[in-house]
Amino acid sequence: MKDSNAPLRAHLSMFIAEAIWGFMAPIGKAAMNSGFDGISVVSFRVAGAALLFWLASFIGPREHIPGRDIVKLAGAAVLGIVFNQCLFNIGLSITSPVNASIVTTSMPIFAMVLSFFILKEPITWKKALGVAIGCCGALILIFSSASAGNAKVGDIRGDLMCLGAQFSFALYLALFNPVIRKYNVFTVNKWMFTWASLFVLPFTTVHVSQLSWASFTAATWLEVVYMVVLGTFVSYLLSVVAQSVLRPTVVSVYNYVQPIVSVVVSVAVGMSVFTLPQGVAVVLVFTGVWLVIKSKSKRDEELRAKR
Question: Theoretical Cys-Cys bridge with 111: which of 31, 105, 106, 252, CB 3.0 to 4.6 Å?
Answer without folding.
Answer: 252
